[in-house]
Hints:
- With 159 residues, the protein is of the alpha+beta class.
- A three-stranded antiparallel beta sheet has the order 4-3-5, with helices on one face. A two-stranded antiparallel ribbon has the order 1-2.
- Helix 2 runs antiparallel to helix 5 and helix 3 packs parallel to helix 5.
- The protein has five helices and five strands, in the order ββαβββαααα.
- A hairpin with a 2-residue loop joins strand 3 and strand 4.
Amino acid sequence: MNKRQITLNVNGRDHEVWLVPSDTLLDVLHDELGMADVRYGCGEGVCGTCTVLLDGEPVNGCLTLAVQAVGHPVTTMRGLMGPDDALHPLQECFLRRGASQCGFCTPGMVLTSLDLVRRTGRPSRDEIRYALVGNLCRCTGYTKILDAIEEYADQVAQP
């Protein structure tokens, strides 16, 4: 197959990679760029494990071709961290509430809920549940995840 070189902007940095046009964003981020926070899950777009933000909106990395991300900023879970690897306030809420146990689903949960709160401000519990429908967790039972997202939304909404 003919490989071609592209440039992806991931977490604020440009990365030049060689790929086959059929390579997924997940393949490139995880395998080529070594970003362990982007994980393989179902490979069918139903578990949310490979979620990243593309132009600020959550997408499944396993269903998105890497070439589709050219010219568009990509943010992974690691990209939320601040100076000196400080956690993002939403990540702190997840930690404080015990919302990530094994941590496998956490990137998808955090990135999806970050987008939700940015769009809606203070979503209801039902809106949170609906937004997370494509993110599967086998450990927490979701209650702690919902609590963490509500806590973050309350923080953001405060003057």
